[in-house]
């Protein structure tokens, strides 16, 4: 089975990577880019029967820094 | 309007970041993790009326390295 975890910086946490992308898009002439947030996506190929609870545990322990990041799991 | 771009390394391109995560999950005792691919997700806050074609152009010119990465746009 597959699971996809998306990890984003929480609202209010400064995102310099996103800011750099926003700035670069402007410099390339793309107008109207009002905000950019960059995060990561982790695609997991898991043994059958792995529960979402188990994936949540992976997020809490390794994949996300829950002090500054939020995560979302899709199966 | 919002658009979300997901950028992943193409199949067959070595993903050392994903491998590192897979290894770390194993070391933490998470069994059954058969594969991990890590990519990035870019959330764009765009002026109303920005076309998907325009977002595609942003991907081609900046957000993805299309030699080794594939991208997907969701609005």
UniProtKB/TrEMBL annotation, chains A, B:
One of its GO terms (biological process) is 'de novo' IMP biosynthetic process. It catalyses: N(2)-formyl-N(1)-(5-phospho-beta-D-ribosyl)glycinamide + L-glutamine + ATP + H2O = 2-formamido-N(1)-(5-O-phospho-beta-D-ribosyl)acetamidine + L-glutamate + ADP + phosphate + H(+). The keyword Ligase applies. Keywords: ATP-binding, Cytoplasm, Ligase, Nucleotide-binding, Purine biosynthesis. One of its GO terms (cellular component) is cytoplasm. SUPFAM superfamilies: PurS-like. One of its GO terms (molecular function) is phosphoribosylformylglycinamidine synthase activity. The keyword ATP-binding applies. It is found in: Cytoplasm. It is an enzyme of class 6 (ligase). Pathway: Purine metabolism; IMP biosynthesis via de novo pathway; 5-amino-1-(5-phospho-D-ribosyl)imidazole from N(2)-formyl-N(1)-(5-phospho-D-ribosyl)glycinamide: step 1/2. Coiled coil: none annotated. Its EC number is 6.3.5.3. PANTHER family: PHOSPHORIBOSYLFORMYLGLYCINAMIDINE SYNTHASE SUBUNIT PURS. Part of the FGAM synthase complex composed of 1 PurL, 1 PurQ and 2 PurS subunits. Belongs to the PurS family. Part of the phosphoribosylformylglycinamidine synthase complex involved in the purines biosynthetic pathway. Catalyzes the ATP-dependent conversion of formylglycinamide ribonucleotide (FGAR) and glutamine to yield formylglycinamidine ribonucleotide (FGAM) and glutamate. The FGAM synthase complex is composed of three subunits. PurQ produces an ammonia molecule by converting glutamine to glutamate. PurL transfers the ammonia molecule to FGAR to form FGAM in an ATP-dependent manner. This is Phosphoribosylformylglycinamidine synthase subunit PurS. The gene is purS.
């Amino acid at each position: 089975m597959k699971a996809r975890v998306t990890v984003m910086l929480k609202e209010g946490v400064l995102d310099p990577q996103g800011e750099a992308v926003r700035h670069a898009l402007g410099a390339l002439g793309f107008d109207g880019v009002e905000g950019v947030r960059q995060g990561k996506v982790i695609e997991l190929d898991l043994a059958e029967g792995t529960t979402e609870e188990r994936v949540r545990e992976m997020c809490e322990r390794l994949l996300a820094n829950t002090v500054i990041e939020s995560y979302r799991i899709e199966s």
